[in-house]
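Module 6 notes. Inverse folding takes a fixed backbone as the condition and produces residue identities as the prediction. Think of it as a translation problem where the source language is geometry and the target language is the twenty amino acids. Below is one complete input and output pair. Work through it position by position during the lab.
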């Protein structure tokens, strides 16, 4: 597999090598050792999630408190989504910026984003099926959101997604500036210190 760092530090696009024949296709969509070589530590995976979304559905922007946060390794097993990683780490050189990876059942890419980064996607097809490997179980008291329509962030949704469909929870989430002012967001210094503890195996 090929692993490429995105423009947001600590996030990566993973492109697997596919082996096809007259029976179908085989691929490795997750390799802990290859990812460990890249990020400096292995993932302690604790939960696997799947979502199925209609075309136009937007899920996110979501993140969890540091520590322990929730790193994510995400792929689409059916259909297509445009996946977004958003830098919400106050003090980061790319704070407020974002990058994207197309996840679909053709190239079968994945995206990895470290703890403290914001995550969202928009479904480009009906029944888009997304699978997530995550490093902590869901904890509603430590999980937060930022409005994906926040103009300061300025996420751009492809025309083929159609009209965005969002949950009341996501549309009711604060914008980036409000979340930062309230102390809700992780800081660059705190997350880098946390990454260091992971790399040291503490």
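Target side of the pair, the amino acids:
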């Amino acid at each position: 597999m090929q692993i490429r760092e995105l423009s947001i530090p600590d996030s990566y696009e993973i492109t697997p090598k596919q082996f096809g024949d007259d029976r179908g296709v085989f691929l490795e969509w997750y390799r802990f050792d290859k990812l460990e070589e890249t990020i400096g530590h292995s993932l302690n995976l604790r939960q696997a999630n799947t979502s199925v979304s209609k075309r136009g559905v937007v899920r996110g922007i979501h993140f969890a408190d540091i520590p322990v946060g929730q790193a994510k390794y995400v792929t689409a097993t059916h259909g297509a989504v445009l996946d977004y990683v958003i830098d919400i780490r106050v003090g980061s050189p790319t704070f407020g910026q974002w990058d994207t990876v197309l996840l679909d059942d053709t190239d079968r890419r994945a995206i990895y984003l470290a703890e403290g980064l914001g995550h969202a996607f928009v479904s480009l097809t009906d029944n888009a099926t997304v699978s997530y490997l995550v490093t902590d179980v869901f904890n509603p008291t430590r999980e937060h959101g930022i409005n994906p329509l926040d103009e300061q962030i300025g996420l751009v949704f492809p025309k083929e997604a159609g009209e965005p469909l969002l949950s009341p929870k996501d549309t009711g989430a604060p914008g980036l500036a409000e979340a930062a002012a309230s102390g809700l967001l992780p800081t660059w210094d705190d997350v880098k210190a946390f990454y260091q503890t992971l790399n040291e195996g503490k």
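Reference fact for the lab report: The chain has a mean pLDDT of 97.
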